Amino acid sequence: MADGDRKHLTDSFRDSGAPSTRLLAADENPPFAVQNPGAASPFLLVGDHAGRRIPRKLGQLGLGAADLERHIACDIGVAGLGAALSDALGACFIAQRYSRLVIDVNRDPARSDSICERSDEIVVPGNLGLTPGDRAARTTEVFAPYHARIAAELDARGARPTVVVALHSFTPRMGGFDRPWRFGVLRMGKPPFSEAMLTRLRAERGDGHVGDNEPYRMDEVDYTVPRHAIGRGLDYLELEVRQDLMADAAGESAVAALLARLLPQALDDLSSGGA
């Protein structure tokens, strides 16, 4: 299903009251869905760009239905991957429901590009000429509750060992370039778990198919991992998966099965001192 809206995802903030009507109507879903809240697994899975919903008040942001099915609207395959991986690992998965075109929750909202006016050469009319109030509503009602839910889950874990796993996907072709990688590990420095997973993935798929800070580099633009993992001194993995590997449910399941095997192995590698 699209948007991470699978029937076993729960809305753990439902009872705290309806979202603000400034942007989200009372009958619209909150900006996050949570699967397996409070799970004992050492992995906490997050999907910043899992959903493609647009708040009703924003229409379709001036875009056609075909554009909202493209990678510019969401990380294709991540909703299904995260749900399957959550089941396989017995791990909590927190997924953003609303499209990155509404606001990119992996960007500091103070950045002008947190709400893009153009994505992959597509102009987003509904994001042009926004007032400070427009931007504030998206931050308050979409960005902030998502990050508050991640923080709450981490707070509830207390001192339990935790590895934050941020799931993303990338389009096979961008700017006229065919990307050779199937997976990419994004990191700042050499966090141990990221290093262990890079080694495991390359042993499984070959060096040329697994990018090290490719197709993107983690830098000061990223928000979720620096805030919730690095900011708390937690180990992490920010993983990119090429979208054609997850073009359907079978692909999502296959990638989930691979990661469900490799993630615990990489964690064991750290305990044993190496692969």
Descriptive report:
Helix 2 crosses helix 6. It is globular, with a radius of gyration of 18 Å. The chain has a single domain, classed as Aminopeptidase (3-Layer(aba) Sandwich), CATH 3.40.630.40. The strands form 3 sheets. It has a 7-stranded mixed sheet, with helices on both faces. It has a two-stranded antiparallel ribbon with strand order 4-5. It is of the alpha/beta class and 275 residues long. The protein is 31% helix and 16% strand.
Give the N-to-C terminal Cα separation. Answer: 36 Å
CATH architecture: 3-Layer(aba) Sandwich
Strand count, sense and barrel status of the largest sheet are:
7 strands, mixed
CATH topology descriptor: Aminopeptidase
The CATH class label is Alpha Beta
CATH-level-4 superfamily name: Zn-dependent exopeptidases
As laid out across the biggest beta sheet, the strand order is 1-3-2-6-11-9-10
Strand content: 15-25%
**What is the total tally of β strands?**
11
Mean pLDDT: 90
Fraction in helix:
25-40%
Report low-confidence residues grouped into runs of 5 or more.
Answer: 1-21
Provide keyphrases for this structure.
two-stranded antiparallel sheet, Aminopeptidase, seven-stranded mixed sheet, single chain, 275 residues, alpha/beta, globular
